[in-house]
Amino acid sequence: MSARLDPNYRANAVKSLGDNEIDVLVIGGGVVGAGAALDAASRGLSVTMVEARDFAAGTSSRSSKLIHGGLRYLEQLDFWLVREALKERSLLLRKLAPHLVRPVSFLLPLQHRVWERAYIGAGVALYDTMGGARALPMHRHLSRTRALDLAPALRDDALTGAIRYFDAQVDDARHTMMIARTAAQHGATVLTRTKVTGLLRDGERVIGAHVTDLETGVEHTVRARSVISATGVWTDEMNKMTGVEFPFHVRTSKGVHILVPRERLDLDTGLIMRTEKSVLFVIPWDRHWIIGTTDTDWSLDKDHPSASKTDVRYILDHVNAVLREPLTEDDIVGTYAGLRPLLSGASSDTSTLSREHAVAEPVPGLFVIAGGKYTTYRVMAADVVDAATKGLGRAVAPSVTEHLPILGAVGYQELEADIASVAQRNGLSYATVERLLGRYGSAINDLFELIAREPELATPLAGADEYLAAEIVYAVTHEGALHLDDVLTRRTRISIEVADRGLATAPEVARLIADHLGWDAAATDREVTRYQDRVRAELAANEATDDATANAARLVAVA
User: Fold this and answer.
1) What's the mean pLDDT in 462-489?
2) CA 356, CA 378: separation in Å to the nearest integer?
3) Confidence class of residue 354 from pLDDT cuts 50, 70 and 90?
4) Whole-angstrom Cα distance, residue 361 to residue 230?
5) Which end of the chain, N or C, is less packed with Cβ atoms under 10 Å?
6) pTM for this one?
7) Above 70 in pLDDT, residue 349?
8) pLDDT of residue 73
């Protein structure tokens, strides 16, 4: 099957909704929903996945972008969760997504000479030797002098020594989208801008859903033998739709990150620092550093969580505590806020709630997956598909996704080993091909074909020169982008990587995709205006000192 998610694919997929009863309907297009669609389709089941907004539009595009076991969970004695996550990290690095998931080193500064090194060192040693540890180098203990050689940006008095260890990172939004494309390649129907407005019932049993195509307003009825809800922070909304009490609830915790230019911090490694509530990361991200996160309760708008001035100040205060030259708000080029779906517990503090996941069947035919963390999405997907297929009345193969590379993985290593020749053959620089391989893997050949047909697409974007025009076109011809915001926020990361949040390049990007999406001049202008309104609303929210004010400022724009 084709993994090309262009407008024709969508039109045909929407037209066929409801034609036949399917095995599994997946509600939610985040990483777990996409993972469930792939898991079910790769078992030979008929699958449709519907997402109200865009792939990864919620939590799955707003994480710390780490694939990790979570050192802090060791301190909470959650060994099973850490071991499971480290096994998944190894699979992603070695087999499933080596083109998208890559090693990243962290320096953990120590501030006490004896007990802290022994205490934290024992935890990091355990981290290195649990499941999947051999995928990355072992940790090393460093003196203060050696640590400062790696991190000259740190103050001398900020550490007595350090431990350097390795984890992994990923562009979460691109990874989620590539999983969805892989699901389509295995026969699943994957649709964005399709919202579930109600559940279809036969007595108490859920037998499908009413789905509205938000691009046209047309409602469709999708019948399914099993329905999976992978709705993350919207799980309680699904609860209300059923009219019954779920065995668990989800609380939302807000995590805020900022981006600063790479040259602003003289570091040869990422950083991790303990805070009074959790940890703070400084993560290398191409030309930038991502710094975060916060961990605060959130009960306001879930579609558009907002970062307030207080959130940003918290991050700056904590990172500046160890820097020679403090960062200021003027250094920030991007800010984003995301929500974590945490299974409710007795604690009122979101930082102590569980990151483990749960599967339930609150009403016959509806299977709900909630909780968990990004790194373990594949396990979560397999667990919920296992539950959903028990009642299909026939034998269903076990999950095979542990052995199933996602789109772009196969052939990636061969291309990576020959970057110079690949660059020469296609008339691009070594650095450009290296970067493209890290975003597309072996699917880079699709981009080369686009450029061969239209050589002008090899031109970098004005105002966002890290990206080529070909990447913008590819976002709508292959990656399912339907709106300007999809391209600037999730297929690329222009909205957080340039100081003007992409305002200068938005008209050019809209022009590049307009014909492919069937936009006339008026529709193109509307898309640009909507994006501009969204950016201004987010910047206004960043100036608010509290969540309520920030939320109100952000909701001025609908995008």
Assistant:
1) 98
2) 13
3) very low
4) 12
5) N
6) 0.96
7) no
8) 75
CB 31 within 8 A of CB 17: no
Structure tokens belonging to residue 444: 């880079």
Max intra-chain CA distance, the chain: 70
Closest C-alpha among 184, 182, 172 to residue 443: 182
**Mean pLDDT for the stretch of residues 393-420:** 97
Task: Name which of 266, 290, 83, 6 is nearest 171 in CA terms.
Answer: 290
**Rg of the Cα atoms in the chain:** 23
- Between CA 274 and CA 322 the distance in angstroms is 12
| Per-residue exposure over 291-329, b if at least 16 CB sit within 10 Å of its own CB, e if not | bbbbbbebebebebbbbbbebbebbbebbeebbeeebee
User: Rounded distance, CA 548 to CA 299, Å?
Assistant: 10
Residue with tokens 């002098």: 145
**Rounded to 5 degrees, what are φ and ψ at 21?**
-70, 135
Least confident of 181-185, 212-216, 274-278, 520-524: 274-278
11, 211 contact by CB (below 8 A): no
Q: Are 157 and 108 in contact (CB under 8 A)?
A: no
The answer on pLDDT for 283 being more than 80 is yes
List the helix and strand counts (H, then E) for the chain: 20, 20
Token pair belonging to 541: 């929210």
Pairing of strands 205-213, 464-468: unpaired
Q: What is the pLDDT of residues 463-474, one digit of tens each?
A: 999 999 999 999
